[in-house]
Every structure is written in C-alpha cells, then in structure tokens.
Amino acid sequence: MEAFIDCLTKYLIYLAVCITILLFFRLTRNVPQHVFRKMLHYVAMTSVPFMILVSESWIPVTVIAVAVAVVAYPLLALGEKWKGFSHFFAEKRDGEIKRSLLDLFLPQAVLTAVFYGWLNLPYVVVAGVLTWGVGDTFAALIGIRYGKHKVQLKCADQKKSWEGTLAGGAAAFITCLAVLLLTGAYTPAKSLLLALLTAPVSAGVELCTKNGNDTYTVPAADCLVLAVLSLL
C-alpha cells in the first residue's frame, strides 16, 4: 500500500505540473490546434514511463494506469456536455479525448505487466513507449508541414508521407538511445545497437498502421524488439 500511495502521489504532482503548463499555453498563447493536441498526447503518453521511473514495483503503475482510464472516461463524458469542450481539447472528432485515454493507458498497463512484471525489464517499457511517442510526434508535425511525397506502398497508410516517416524514424532512434543511456540500463555500445534496430521497426510499424491503432501496435512492437534484443 505504501508503494502504491508513493507512486500515486508522485504521479499526481507530475500531472498537476503538466496541467498547469498546458493551461498556461492554452489560455495565454495562440497555440495551433494540432500542436496543442500533441501537447495533451505527451502528458498522457509520458504518464506510465514516469510512474515506472519513480515506482519500486510494476503493480502500482499497472493499477494506476487502469484506474486513470476507467475514472477519466466518465468524467470526460460529462465534460463533453460543455459546448466548448471539443474546441478546448483540440478534438478532431467528438469523443476523441476519452477514447484516446483508453487507447493509451490500457495498452501501456498491459505492457507494464508483461515486460516489467513478468520479464523484469522496466526500461524496455520506458524506452518502447517514449520511442513511439516522440517518433509519432515528429512524424506527424513534419509530415503536416513538409510532407509532399505520399507513401504509395500497399501495406502503408497512404495518408502518410516519406518526410514524416523519416523524421519519425530519426526521432525514434535519438529518443531510444537517449533513454537507454540516461537510465544506464545497458552499455553504450549495446544501447546504440538496440536503438539502431528498434527505430526502423518503430517507424515501419507506424507507417503501416491505419485508423489510429498505432497506440497499440507501435509501443508493443518497440517493447518486443527491445526485450528480445535485451535477452540475447
């Protein structure tokens, strides 16, 4: 119980700081809708990695992640009754925020239970989720701004561009390497090898995933590659 309270307290402080920053930018700066949507995404996406880094066990992280999704969904459903809700949260379509929370927190809870709880590889989850999250952000922002060459491969989401995919892959590599080095999980040489092999997989799965299901496919693929390589 003490471990659970400690993890929850630290996460609530982290969440309060993030919400304060988000409100500051939303209310005082003219932030483009797609940029603010990515800022919201970052807060949610970094939640589980943050809790893993400050927790002594996988159980509090998994329980809190599931609880956030379960509790936030009905609260956001109530909030949707406010006419300005969709605009304030930069939703592309009605109900996007509450569904996105489910799509983020529940899969990450499963990844935490499997790779941290079962395999005892906590940094695999941290690196896998952040590699996807940062790569996805750069792929979207660069693709929106500079994406002129659409991907024509049959297996790919043809709305995506080569510019966005390459930017996402580069960002995934840098993020994966930085996380592995900063956490000290592996030697620099092994961290470099893991990042070099994980980033292309991350970018490729992202490219081929359609209908917004990358929150499931890419973190899982990243964690699987990192776990297999880690155990070699």
Task: Give an overview in words.
The protein is an all-alpha fold and 232 residues long. The chain folds into two domains: 1-120, no CATH class; 122-232, no CATH class. The protein contains ten helices and no strands. Helix 1 packs across helix 4 (58-79) and helix 8 runs antiparallel to helix 9.
Can you give keywords for this protein?
2 domains, 232 residues, mainly alpha
Shape: globular
The portion of residues forming beta strands comes to: under 5%
- First CA to last CA: what distance? 35 Å
Discrete helix count: 10
H and E order: HHHHHHHHHH
How many strands appear in the DSSP assignment?
Answer: 0
Structurally, how many domains make up the residues? Answer: 2
Sheet having the most strands: none
Classification by helices and strands: mainly alpha
